[in-house]
């Protein structure tokens, strides 16, 4: 399986309840404390190869959709990108998961991998990180009418995805160029700067 998902031993705790001894609660200067250990799981997900077909990510997709608010997913990204339909599946799961999600970029974060980064709650951009974003590459065969219809539909869907994914990360002019086929490359410092700017733009709309 290309994507490795695991919960290291010792990180999953069983729930238990503890209370301060009764005699200690009688002290006026000491508050009564009731502590509960909440079961939680941390998943370390390594996206460090080409992003392949959706079935290779079935387990990850399931875990994201069934996670609780106490769970944590760490995505270690060092990938040249890959299949768009797989990225779309994971993006939809990232949108609805109850877990906290963090992307740790330590190398390549290109194409579809950069899209996954954009939908994580938090991002840690290491000094080795670099990103390339572009429009989708696709092909179709058939008669003239079918090719035209499929191309127009796919272009519309891809451009909508680009607008939603990179809004605030690249400028409107850069977006136009991306849709025309231009590739954009960013080093670690520029990724950090653009992510901060994107976050600043998103905060007002979320408050509204």
Q: What attributes characterize this protein structure?
A:
single chain; about 210 residues; alpha/beta; 2-enoyl-CoA Hydratase, Chain A, domain 1; 7 helices; 9 strands; disordered N terminus
Can you offer a commentary on this structure?
This protein is of the alpha/beta class. It has a single domain, classed as 2-enoyl-CoA Hydratase, Chain A, domain 1 (Alpha-Beta Complex), CATH 3.90.226.10. It contains seven helices and nine strands; from the N terminus they run E-E-H-E-E-H-E-H-E-H-E-E-H-H-E-H. Strands 1, 4, 5, 6, 7, 8 and 9 form a seven-stranded mixed β-sheet that branches. It has a two-stranded antiparallel ribbon with strand order 2-3. Strand 4, helix 2 (58-66) and strand 5 (72-79) form a beta-alpha-beta unit. Helix 3 packs parallel to helix 4. The model is unreliable at 1-22 (pLDDT under 50).
Summary of the model, kept short:
The chain is α/β, with parallel strands linked by helices. It has helices spanning 22-25, 58-66, 84-96, 112-118, 144-166, 172-179, 188-207, and strands spanning 4-6, 16-19, 34-37, 42-47, 72-79, 100-110, 122-125, 130-133, 184-187.
Q: Work out the strand percent.
A: 15-25%
Mean pLDDT across every amino acid position: 82
CATH fold-level name: 2-enoyl-CoA Hydratase, Chain A, domain 1
Count of folded domains: 1
Radius of gyration: 22 Å
Which percent range fits the helix content? 40-55%
Main beta-sheet annotation: 7 strands, mixed
Going by CATH, the homologous superfamily would be 2-enoyl-CoA Hydratase, Chain A, domain 1
The outline comes out as: globular
Distance between the termini: 42 Å
What's the assembly state of these chains?
single chain
String of helices and strands: EEHEEHEHEHEEHHEH
CATH architecture field: Alpha-Beta Complex
Poorly predicted runs are 1-22
Name the structural class: alpha/beta
Number of helices: 7
CATH first level: Alpha Beta
Task: Find the count of extended strands (DSSP E, 2+ residues).
Answer: 9
